[in-house]
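Q: Here's a chain of 117 amino acids. Please give me its 3D structure as tokens.
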Amino acid sequence: VRLVESGGGLVQPGGSLRLSCVASGNTVIVNVMGWYRQAPGKQRELVASMTTGAGRTYYSDSVKGRFTISRDNAKNTLYLEMKDLKSEDTAAYYCSAEWGTPPVVDFGQGTQVTVSS
């Protein structure tokens, strides 16, 4: 599964951004799509995910209430709406697609989000 992210950039604290991820390839086998982030010197962490079937969502405590994950199946596109951004949200954000048993996770190339005044 090939994933291409876009939408990152520089935003002031309290601002908003929307990330997009276009999926291509054998997308019918994907079970879960999500967004990870990795800040310098830190491990990559899952911030939000959505099952491709029922659309069940997960959010990490650090983004719950501020970030919203959604999808447009017709466009094979996953979104991450981010509001009330904080400096600690600064990171490279990666789209993910989980498939197979045992699960395999594919990542995109990432898009940088920088929250700074």
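Q: Can you summarize the key feature?
A: The first strand starts at residue 2 and ends at 6.
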